[in-house]
Amino acid sequence: MRILIVGGGTAGTILGNNLARRLSGEIRSGKARITMLSASDKHMYQPGLLYVAFGQMMPDELYRDQASLLESSIDFHVDPVEKFMLDKNRVKTRSGKTHEYDILVIATGSRIVPQEIPGLNEGSETFYSEAGAVKMFKRLREFQGGRVAIVVGVPHKCPIAPVEVTFALHDYFKARGIRDKVHMKYHYPIGRIHTIENVAIWAKPEFDRMGVEYETLFNVKEVDVENKVVRSEEGTETEYDLLISIPPHRGMEVVEEEGLGQGGWIPTDRHQLKMAGHDNVYVLGDTTNLPVSKTGSAAHFEAEVVADNIASMIKIGTPVREYDGKVYCFIETGHDSATYAMFNYANPPDLKSPNKSMHWFKMAYNKMYWTSVRGLL
Ligand SMILES: Cc1cc2nc3c(=O)[nH]c(=O)nc-3n(C[C@H](O)[C@H](O)[C@H](O)COP(=O)(O)OP(=O)(O)OC[C@H]3O[C@@H](n4cnc5c(N)ncnc54)[C@H](O)[C@@H]3O)c2cc1C
């Protein structure tokens, strides 16, 4: 059984390691083989970018060598896929190689596309890339006061990020003693301040407490860099001195170009995580079109389900589990406090009051991620 994993990020790595352990006997006897193709020899802990943007982590702390995270039985290559030939059970890579498979797992993640909104790239600071996070920190350090606007493109990964960065900005300006010189305004694309209703209900009084103004139904249309104005599709505008953006996302180019899914989001069965119409193709993480948050935690839980099911299919001929839409998000709320949101397809999150121990748990998780991605947590 040839299992081919495309993508060595959160989902692909957890899947590969779990599978390699569950199928160790089959791999030893030559009955199963796991190959992973990725676009980078490095693995980035993406949630750490928020800390880089506030000078609390250095960029090099976010990386590990991908090969060092993988079980030794996984045949790993840095050779991105350029062509999916799903009807022939094979893919073609940048180096010109062809890989055949019996089971394919697509876990290629997502990419930011700020260029889709005129002026957003030039006019805003973002922490959604390493270079962006470093630049944002330098800009924050220079900032002496004025109007700060936070805008959110859709869709985007990590739904909690807009709220977290708002708390973090408030804290940062307070710590610098300039909070009274800063007017903060948060903009959100739908009719409440967060897509998850209970997060919106919880965050609103917190924003009031911090003196953060908010405007809902604000879909960013353009940034007028010269005049420092951000305009919405809805016809409103906000003037700013410092614009912080969460850029819109798409799936990877190869997924779009190959026609696997509109916007790069692959139609995926909600419970078995198979690509629609393809019994031997699984889809994990950001690149699915599932109605769940694009988060590392969803990628993690999905990968565990698919690892169990591929292993059980090989061992007993039937899948054993279904994905229930589970997501777990830490929410950093400033003042060294945090809370969390846990939910699935059927149950919305029930938010608890933030506390210090949750914050320290998140700080510990920032290190524990490397154990988690090895499939050991
Ligand atoms: C600023 C920020 C904060 C975040 N905070 C959180 C958080 O607090 N909690 C949380 O759960 N999540 C958070 N996330 C989201 C989380 O990091 C992603 O949702 C998660 O990494 C998705 O996993 P994935 O495996 O789908 O994609 P990724 O981890 O992005 O991996 C994609 C992989 O595919 C590879 N690849 C790409 N193209 C190809 C190709 N053509 N061929 C082969 N390989 C390819 C890439 O090299 C990469 O290895 C955050 C993200 C950001 C940016």
Q: Give the second-level CATH assignment, the architecture of the largest domain.
A: 3-Layer(bba) Sandwich
Average per-residue pLDDT, rounded, comes to 97
Q: Uncertain regions: pLDDT < 50 for 5+ in a row?
A: none
Structural class assignment: alpha/beta
CATH topology of the largest domain, anyone? Answer: FAD/NAD(P)-binding domain
Number of strands: 21
Distance, first to last CA = 27 Å
Overall helicity: 25-40%
CATH class of the largest domain: Alpha Beta
Radius of gyration: 21 Å
Largest sheet: 5 strands, parallel
Widest sheet: strand order? 5-2-1-9-19
Q: Report the oligomer.
A: single chain
Question: Which features does this protein show?
Answer:
377 residues, alpha/beta, FAD/NAD(P)-binding domain, 2 domains, five-stranded parallel β-sheet, 21 strands, 31% helix
Characterize the structure shown.
The strands form seven sheets. This protein has a five-stranded parallel sheet with strand order 5-2-1-9-19, covered by helices on one side. The chain has a four-stranded parallel sheet with strand order 13-12-11-17, with helices on one face. Strands 6-7-8 form a three-stranded antiparallel sheet, with no helix packed on it. The chain folds into two domains: 183 residues, FAD/NAD(P)-binding domain (3-Layer(bba) Sandwich), CATH 3.50.50; 136 residues, FAD/NAD(P)-binding domain (3-Layer(bba) Sandwich). It is of the alpha/beta class. The radius of gyration is 21 Å and the shape is globular. Flavin-adenine dinucleotide (FAD) binds next to helix 1, strand 2, helix 3, helix 10 and strand 20.
